[in-house]
Design goal:
- By secondary structure, this protein is of the alpha/beta class.
- The protein has helices at residues 9-12, 16-28, 31-37, 42-56, 72-98, 118-128, 141-149, 211-223, 236-244, 291-310; strands at 61-64, 67-70, 104-111, 132-139, 155-158, 167-182, 202-205, 228-232, 249-253, 265-267, 275-284.
- The chain contains 10 helices and 11 strands.
- Strands 3, 4, 5, 6, 7, 8, 9, 10 and 11 form a 9-stranded mixed beta sheet that branches. A two-stranded antiparallel sheet has the order 1-2.
- Helix 2 (16-28) packs across helix 3 (31-37).
- The longest helix has 27 residues, at 72-98.
- It is globular, with a radius of gyration of 24 Å.
- The model has no long low-confidence stretch (mean pLDDT 85).
Length: 321
């Protein structure tokens, strides 16, 4: 049997609540935001963070100007705290499994475009396992890569997984990108349109850091084509409405059109399109998956792709999957 270490360091490490406060501060960089998100008074947060620092006898925060930053020791404590909470989550899952009750926390992060189909996969899963709590985050590709580096979640969903991180990838479903235009566009209904015919058209693009923009820039570089970028918008929904309003064309994942029943937007028949990519479920290679995470991964492998595909039935994107 393994015995507790002789060092009393673990006794000075603070309570789980103090570590929770510290992790939240490390992620927000703000005492006031930490207090707001954890429903505490700001002085309480400051006092607990100071107690934690005093117990460890090392400064965790430093003030530069009016802003607080993590010290080197603070950054080390942040990384270790994430590992502690990850381990506690796995313990909760194992204990629940031993009692025959599938329960615990599932942490997921997906890029913005994946929000059009991934929540529909969670519905049947949560109905089957009502005692599983889900923490679901959405952001652009850059923010999801940062979360992956910091091991904040169980799984991440990308169309373009990062190549400089040691990860496991599970190819999930297709992610075709198509050119969309207002239904009254001059090229509406035309066949085999050359992309060069669109050179003068105003294009509406996602922001730098998004997976869709990454795909488009990769295509333009490889094909030698160019576009007239007129607007940059961070929301797929806003892009679709801008296209319908005649402000320009765009290139979007067909999954953004999966639930559309709108006659004001049309997929153009452009040579070289759809650009065919895939969605991937990703996790760190050395990550120890909890029982809940393993159960969810099996669910995706066995049923997830079919559920996602069914969303496109009778939609304008049905012929592109």
């Amino acid at each position: 049997m393994m015995s507790l270490p002789h060092s009393r360091f673990h006794a000075r490490l603070g309570t789980f609540r103090q570590l929770e406060l510290f992790v939240k501060f490390a992620e927000t960089g703000s005492i006031s935001q930490t207090a707001h998100e954890l429903h505490l008074a700001q002085p309480s947060v400051s006092i607990q963070l100071k107690k934690l620092s005093d117990n460890l006898d090392v400064p965790l925060l430093e003030q530069i100007g009016r802003k607080l930053f993590l010290t080197d020791a603070g950054r080390e404590l942040y990384k270790s705290s994430l590992e502690i909470f990850d381990s506690v989550g796995r313990l909760e899952s194992r204990l629940a499994s031993l009692s025959g009750l599938q329960a615990g926390l599932l942490k997921l992060s997906v890029v913005t475009t994946a929000k059009y189909f991934f929540p529909h996969l969670l519905g049947p899963f949560c109905q089957r396992y009502p005692n599983i709590e889900v923490n679901f985050n959405i952001g652009n590709r850059n923010s999801m890569v940062n979360r992956l580096r910091e091991n904040k979640d169980d799984f991440y969903v990308f169309s373009h997984p990062p190549e400089d991180i040691d990860i496991e990838t599970f190819e999930f479903i297709k992610n075709p990108l198509v050119v969309v235009a207002p239904s009254n566009h001059r090229l509406s209904g035309k066949k085999n349109i050359k992309f060069s015919q669109l050179a003068a058209e105003p294009f509406i693009m996602r922001e730098p850091g998004s997976g869709t923009r990454y795909s488009i820039e990769k295509y333009l570089l490889q094909s030698g084509n160019s576009i007239n970028e007129k607007m940059t918008i961070e929301s797929n929904e806003a892009i679709k409405h801008s296209v319908m309003s005649g402000l320009g064309l765009s290139i979007l994942s067909v999954h953004t059109l999966a639930l559309e029943r709108n006659a004001e937007i049309e997929i153009l028949d452009v040579k070289g399109f759809p650009m065919l990519y895939h969605w991937y479920v990703v996790y760190l290679r050395n990550k120890k998956l909890s029982d809940v995470a393993k159960t969810f991964l099996e669910y995706l492998e066995n049923e997830g792709a079919q559920i996602a595909g069914n969303l496109l039935v009778n939609s304008p994107a049905a012929n592109y999957i």
